[in-house]
Design brief:
- The complex is a heterotrimer of chains A (about 550), B (about 325) and C (about 300).
- Chain A is α+β, with helices and mostly antiparallel strands.
- Chain A has helices spanning about 15-30, 65-75, 85-90, 130-140, 145-150, 155-160, 190-195, 265-270, 285-295, 325-335, 335-340, 375-385, 405-415, 430-435, 455-465, 485-495, 505-515, and strands spanning about 45-50, 80, 90-95, 100-105, 110-115, 170-175, 180, 220-230, 230-235, 255-260, 280, 300-315, 345-350, 395-400, 420-425, 445-450, 520-535, 545, 550.
- Chain A has a domain at about 305-530: Roll (Dipeptide-binding Protein, domain 3), CATH 3.10.105.
- Chain A is about 30% helix and about 20% strand.
- In chain A, the strands form four sheets. In chain A, strands 1, 8, 9, 10, 11, 12, 13, 14, 15, 16 and 17 form an eleven-stranded mixed sheet that branches. A four-stranded antiparallel sheet of chain A has the order 4-5-7-6, with no helix packed on it.
- In chain A, helix 8 runs parallel beside helix 9 and helix 10 (about 325-335) runs antiparallel to helix 12.
- The two termini of chain A are about 35 Å apart.
- Chain C is an all-alpha fold and about 300 residues long.
- In chain C, helix 5 crosses helix 7 (about 170-205).
- The chains are: A alpha+beta (about 550), B mainly alpha (about 325), C mainly alpha (about 300).
- The interface between B and C is large, with 53 and 63 residues.
């Protein structure tokens, strides 16, 4: 997912706060607002964000700014629980489906039944076949996460190519509401895919063309209205939802006016001065205001650890990083405390690809040394000498925005300090990833990040480390690593269903430790996302989902 | 006519012009010498010219300052010392180290200021060279030949003139950063300062080319050109032997003007992310980095900004003096 | 005259076609344009689908013609968000128009005032003071001036809003307050240029033959100044103003709009250019240059009408 991050500041001893946050809020807020509550309903709050969603059409968008809205306006068969904290907030709950799916023993067939009699906001009935339509529409419109569907569902690829009229792997029965989905091979994270906002029910009468300004009707507690592209839109309560509310998916209390301010300083100071109510969780508090916010608004500001890893990729097919010692030297020399300071508190130093809240995050000490202590540059330099790669030219690819650029500058300086000849190559934000994902560019090393699409380590590994991800364009395995040990492990781990993840946690840990030890990926930290609201909102009622951020349906005015 | 071309042309213009200012005219003095005399009397212009010279000298001596006084390079980061716990840079220390404070990644602003000045001035100088050479050639060719050549060149000027400068800069900046500029014979890397210089240099060609063309249109009807033609001189000889010296004063007047604008444009392009590439400094990138640190670390924006304004002001006031001296009737109009 | 008109219009159209081709070519040099809106890690099939859908599998000239057709029929949509570009431009137009009209009036009137005062007191202290002021104005980058103003008058002292735009219809007073700093920042450079140009034109005109004739006829100095000198000197200023105004309306005030976060046409163009989103860039460039070239041609024609000696 794309999020917008700007040079930030804070350093609220992220790890401590994060632990505290997870402990305290998750128990008090989950399910607090289902059914009739004592909370006052009515009013409008203003949410300020740095970037407009890629599209308000759920079949196109895959940004955090879009997902936090589509999560509420377009329910699919499943959804993520409305709860704070990595545990409760990562649970998949039935939404339009009546119960969790029945999965065949080989893990390739998912069967579920949808609730009968649900009405869209325009009054028409929700039908089982609408899901097939929505998925087909998403493929046709080029949904940014389409690969989750084309790589898993039987016949999705053929449909996209035009060689099939419909997706053969999905069969539905509108009278019984039964839906069966056939997968090409067992894929343990498929339930999570079914809970992703893009996989939702929309009426089959919706035109198959992008509708960013008048998004399709859907079923959910909220409606999207009054869209002024790139400026603002309203997320208002759906009056027809309350009477057909689904357990665990609260109806919400207030309307939300979403407004774009392309300057995070204005954004943050508006919330600080209570002229706006919610700071978008995809943005970062600017460094200049962190101190002020911590002293004046500590009761309404809380950084939450979100599963997002920042790392340097090292291309294993190119000199000097085809050499293990050279890679390990980099892992040893990266100045994680300095990078954290440059990311001013939004970054918690670390060394593993899988973030701390993800199943499979290793518990062993980092192979390159304590990430919270200054690095041993001398030892790293000696290692480079030993590798015979000293003096090798290295091009560091970097994104041209703060603090990513600052991180890359520091990284290039580190590489120079341990004996490489590093130069920086900065690429405009919008084309950065498409450039480094074009295989023939063979980027030697550079910036990369990954934010979970769903709470399953498969999401990280199938995209970033799996040898099968190497492709001429859209290559996501920047390291171009195809390690037999990794491949064997992944083959065994992918089919494990999400509900049984904990049984293979140690195996994921061992794998992630191996990847770090081999230094294919040099991770340097994890992002903390801000929950920052005005004093108009009741902080005790707020829910911060580890997947969708601020839960609009938990907003209550005091 | 041969070597007296310059004098001939000016001798018809100068005395009248100078009389307009009520000046005593010593007989037999060349126009450039006269101009120099006038410039010498303009103390304000000289003072600002001197300021510019000092600033340039400081930037030239940047390595000396970095090595012997500050003991840190322009791209050396000192995050532990120069950033506080919130990641904000320290302000001016007024000591050898971090004399003017640090920037957002803990680099010494004073050192970067001097190195940044080198980039800004280098780009400015290269761009000015490109503008002046092409504008002179194209302007003279268009004005001298008229007809289709003039039509083509004038349309080209119009195209560049109408083109949105910063959009072009951003577009080229983004595209070239990925692939660099491959001109077959030679290749310019995406990080090269030359790309920015070329963009800026091209942009200003019409601003200088148009007035030169206009002036040449008038000159080509004059007797001394007719005489040269009758002597059987070739086109090239006439254009660059006879006409060029007569537009020389226009060229001289435009040099500071273009230089000043080129430096400003570089800063603007850097602000929108299409100028000098990080980690290298230029005044433009430094200001724009500083703007991102507002409202906490104002010095990171003010220091390079003031330096930039002073430099450009130095060029402009001095250039104004040069123009007054060369052409007291101020015949040449400034378009921006 | 008719021939001149036709020639001028023809060359205008040629220049615009050349500009559109140039812009298109610059952007088509990026490899794999489809990657930019295919999301992260697209499959080969998704890419093929998008290539076909957007016509990236067609030759360059066909793509160019297709885009041009879309622009002039108002059907063009952006790559990144797939929303109608022309509608977007109309949405941003009030912002840019507010900026251009307000600033345009300020810089024209102030520029004329400074220029006249400067010429009137040529060589005296007032002239020198105004000259230095003008030169400081033309030496200050607009985004630096803007940032300094926004910081000291906006963020720090809260005297005026530091940025953003409030529409005129929703609150005229707020609109005015939000526009003061952008107007001022944008005007400074132009005031510097205009007052310098006007000063030298006036001084130039004073020595022209017809002014001497007018003086010789016995007109008062005041009459000569206003009726002959000023009127003739204002022609280049007003034509210059026309071009600059057109440039700002056409999205030329990118730096001002960005530093004050106004979300006008210029900022939209700049953001699109940074994302290599061709349709908005191409459309705005075309509309912007259209404005500049047309006003340029109008000025040339006006000149030719006013002064038959000039047939460019």
């Amino acid at each position: 997912m794309n999020t917008r991050a700007v040079l930030t500041a804070v350093l609220a001893v992220a790890s401590v706060v994060v632990l505290a946050a997870c402990g305290s809020s998750s128990t008090s807020t989950s399910h607090s607002s289902t059914g009739p509550t004592t909370a006052k309903t009515g009013g409008t709050v203003t949410l300020v964000e740095g970037t407009f969603p890629q599209s308000l059409d759920p079949s196109i968008d895959f940004t955090t700014q879009g997902a936090e809205v589509h999560w509420l306006a377009y329910l699919g068969p499943y959804s993520f629980a409305h709860a704070s904290g990595p545990g409760p907030g990562s649970v998949v709950i039935p939404a339009i489906a009546t119960a969790l799916p029945a999965v065949s023993p080989d893990g390739k067939t998912y069967t579920f039944t949808i609730r009968s009699g649900l009405k869209y906001s325009d009054g028409s009935t929700v039908k089982a076949s609408d899901l097939t339509f929505a998925i087909e529409r998403a493929l046709k419109l080029g949904w940014s996460a389409a690969s989750f569907l084309t790589s898993t569902i039987v016949g999705a690829k053929e449909y996209l190519k035009g060689s099939a009229k419909s997706i053969s792997g999905i069969t539905t029965n509108d009278s019984t509401g039964q839906t069966t989905i056939h997968l090409k091979s067992a894929y343990g994270a498929f339930l999570d895919v079914l809970a992703t906002p893009g996989v939702s029910y929309i009426p089959a009468t919706t035109p198959i063309k992008p509708e960013p300004n008048s998004p399709p009707v859907g079923f959910g507690p909220y409606l999207i209205k009054n869209i002024v592209p790139n400026v603002s839109f309203d997320v208002v309560l759906n009056p027809s939802y309350t009477s057909q509310a689904i357990a665990g998916i609260p109806a919400g209390h207030v309307n939300v006016h979403v407004k774009v301010e392309s300057n995070t300083t204005t954004e943050a100071s508006d919330v600080l001065n209570n002229t706006a109510d919610v700071f978008d969780w995809g943005d970062t508090i600017p460094p200049a205001l962190v101190q002020q916010i911590q002293s004046q608004a500590s009761d309404r500001y809380k950084p939450y650890q979100s599963n997002k890893t920042f790392y340097w990729f090292l291309n294993t097919t190119e000199k000097p990083f085809n050499n293990l010692l050279a890679r390990q030297a980099v892992n040893m020399a990266v100045d994680r405390p300095a990078l954290a300071k440059l990311g001013s508190g939004a970054l918690a130093p670390g060394c593993y690809l899988l973030p701390p809240l993800m199943v499979g995050h290793p518990t062993q000490p980092c192979p390159g040394g304590d990430p919270n202590a200054p690095p041993n540059v001398a030892a790293a330099k000696a290692l480079v000498q030993k590798s015979g790669m000293a003096g090798q030219p290295v091009t560091v690819w970097a994104q041209n925005r703060q603090p990513r650029l600052e991180w890359a500058t520091n990284y290039a300086a580190t590489l120079n300090a341990i004996g490489f000849k590093a130069t920086l190559k900065t690429i405009a934000d919008a084309v950065y990833f498409s450039t480094i994902e074009t295989l023939h560019n063979h980027p030697q090393t550079g910036f990369a990040d990954w934010q979970q699409d769903f709470p399953n380590p498969t999401d990280f590994y199938q995209n970033l480390v799996d040898g099968n991800a190497i492709a001429p364009v859209g290559n996501s395995n920047y390291e171009e690593v195809n390690d037999p040990h990794i491949q064997a492990e992944l083959k065994a781990l992918y089919p494990v269903p999400g509900s049984q993840l904990s049984s293979v946690a140690s195996r994921w840990q061992a794998l992630d430790y191996y990847v770090t030890k081999q230094a294919y990926i040099v991770s340097y930290g994890y992002l903390a996302s801000p929950q920052f609201v005005s004093n108009r909102l009741d902080v005790s009622k707020l829910v911060f989902s580890p997947i969708q951020g601020n839960d609009f349906s938990s907003f209550v005015l005091k | 006519m041969s070597d007296g071309a310059v004098g001939t042309e000016f001798s018809t213009e100068m005395p009248e012009a100078l009389r307009a200012e009520g000046e005593e005219l010593p007989p037999g003095i060349g126009p450039y010498k006269l101009a120099w005399r006038r410039l010498r009397r303009n103390k304000v212009a000289l003072a600002f010219g001197g300021l510019f010279f000092v600033l340039v000298l400081m930037c030239v001596l940047a390595p000396v300052y970095a090595n012997d006084i500050a003991h840190t390079g322009p791209n050396d980061e000192n995050i532990a010392k120069a950033l506080n716990q919130y990641g904000l840079p320290i302000g001016p220390t007024w000591h050898a180290k971090f004399f003017l404070g640090a920037d957002g990644v803990g680099r010494d602003i004073a050192v970067r200021l001097l190195y940044g000045g080198r980039s800004s001035l280098e780009i400015g100088a290269e761009a000015t060279l490109i503008t002046m050479v092409f504008a002179t050639i194209l302007g003279i060719v268009a004005g001298y030949f008229r007809g289709p050549a003039d039509g083509f060149i004038s349309r080209a000027f119009e195209l560049i003139w109408a083109y949105p400068v910063y959009l072009l800069g951003i577009a080229l900046g983004v595209v070239l950063a990925i692939s660099g500029l491959d001109l077959g014979l030679f290749k310019i890397g995406g990080n090269s300062l030359l790309i920015t210089a070329i963009i800026i240099g091209v942009i200003y060609i019409p601003y200088v080319g148009k007035p030169i063309r206009g002036q040449v249109l008038g000159l080509r009807e004059r007797e001394f050109i007719d005489a040269a033609r009758q002597q059987g001189l070739g086109h090239l000889r006439i254009m660059f032997g006879e006409i060029l010296p007569n537009v020389a004063s226009t060229i001289i007047v435009f040099i500071p003007l273009v230089l000043a604008n080129a430096i400003l444009t570089e800063a603007g392009l850097s602000y929108v992310g299409a100028g000098v590439r990080p980690p290298n400094a230029s005044w433009g990138t430094m200001i724009s980095d500083g703007i991102h640190l507002l409202p906490a670390a104002v010095h990171t924006m003010l220091v390079p900004g003031i330096m930039l304004v002073l430099t450009v002001l130095g060029i402009n006031v001095f250039g104004d003096g040069v123009r007054d001296a060369l052409d007291p009737r101020a015949r040449i109009r400034i378009d921006h | 005259m008719a021939r001149f008109l036709i020639r001028r219009s023809l060359s205008m159209v040629l220049v615009m076609i050349a500009i559109s081709i140039l812009t298109f070519l610059i952007f088509t040099t990026i490899p794999h344009p489809e990657l930019q809106f295919a999301g992260r890690f697209p499959t080969a099939d998704t890419l093929a689908h998008i290539r076909h859908q957007w016509g990236f599998d067609q030759p360059v000239y066909l793509r160019y013609l297709k885009v041009m057709k879309l622009i002039f029929s108002g059907q063009i949509v952006s790559y990144s968000q797939q929303i109608n570009v022309v509608q977007q431009i109309f949405q941003y137009l009030p912002v840019t128009a507010s900026l251009a009209i307000g600033a345009g009036i300020i810089w024209l009137l102030t520029g004329i005032m400074f220029g006249v005062l400067s010429a009137w007191r040529a060589g005296r202290w007032l002239d020198r003071g105004l000259t230095i002021l003008s030169l400081v104005g033309v030496s200050t980058p607009v985004f630096f001036l803007g940032a300094v103003l926004a910081y000291y008058l906006g963020d720090k002292t809260q005297i005026l809003p530091a940025g953003g735009y409030v529409s005129l219809t929703s609150s005229p007073w707020d609109w005015f307050k939000h526009m003061i700093l952008p107007w001022f920042a944008l005007s400074v450079l132009f005031i510097g240029v205009y007052s310098r140009v006007l000063r030298s034109t006036i001084l130039d005109t004073i020595n022209d033959d017809y002014v001497r004739t007018a003086r010789a006829k016995g007109l008062t100095e005041r009459q000569v100044m206003i009726r002959h000198v000023l009127r003739n000197s204002l022609i280049p200023i007003v034509s210059l103003w026309g071009l600059d105004f057109a440039a700002v309306i056409g999205g030329g005030a990118i730096l001002t709009e960005t530093v004050f976060d106004l979300h006008g046409i210029g900022q939209y163009a700049a953001q699109s250019a940074q994302q290599l989103d061709i349709p908005p860039v191409l459309t705005i460039t075309l509309f912007g240059t259209f404005a500049v070239v047309m006003i340029g041609a109008a000025v040339d024609i006006l000149y030719a009408v006013l002064d038959p000696r000039i047939r460019l």
